[in-house]
Each structure stands twice: as C-alpha cells, then as structure tokens.
Amino acid sequence: MYHSVSACTIRHRLQQSGLSARRSLLGLPLTQNHRHLRHQWCDERRMWAAEWNEVVFTDELRICLQHHDGRIRV
After folding, report:
1. Average pLDDT per consecutive 10 residues, the chain (74 residues; last block may be shorter)
2. pLDDT given at position 54
3. How far apart are alpha carbons 74 and 26 in whole angstroms?
4. Dihedral sign, CA of 12, 14, 16, 21?
5. Distance (Å, whole) CA 38 – CA 32
6. What is the 3-state secondary structure (H, E, C) of 8-48?
7. Please, which residues have CB within 8 angstroms of residue 21's CB and are 6 or more apart in sequence?
8. To which H or E segment does residue 7 belong?
C-alpha cells in the first residue's frame, strides 16, 4: 500500500518529536590554494561598478532550483 506524504508533514511530525535538522558548526579549513583563488576572485572584481547592478544578492540564502544541493545536516 502506498501513501503520499508531503515533505511539510514529515518536517512537522519530526519537530513534534523534538527532532530538527542542524548544520554542522565546523567546516573544512581553507587550503592555501582556496585562499589564493578567493583573493584572485576579489582582485578580478575590484574595479567593478556597473557590473554589480547585474548581481542578485540573496543575503547568504542558498537557492537550489534543479536538485538537492548536497549539504549535510546533522
């Protein structure tokens, strides 16, 4: 027998039981190469003015339109 249950219902039931998803507090440390690439990215955009008008800022919100983003929650 198959029953369709929405994701919202599952989240609600888990919360009622005192369970909720949390992101891990610790992240992977940046390698020297990661730091170099971040610095390079910033340098390439240092003189941007009009280009920033084409960027959509989401206040650190992550939006996935096609598939699960692969984040691990604990």
Report:
1. 80 84 77 96 94 78 67 62
2. 87
3. 11
4. negative
5. 10
6. HHHHHHHHHCCCCCCECCCCCCCCHHHHHHHHHHHHHCCCC
7. 73, 74
8. helix 7-16
- Tell me the two tokens of residue 25: 């507090």
The encoded tokens of residue 28 equal 């992977």
Q: Does an H or E element contain 66, and which?
A: none
Tokens 């610790």 map to which residue?
Answer: 26
The encoded tokens of residue 40 equal 């390079």
Residue carrying the six token digits 């940046």: 30
The pLDDT of residue 3 is 75
Residues 72, 37, 55, 58, CA torsion sign: positive
* 24 vs 1: CA distance, rounded Å: 37
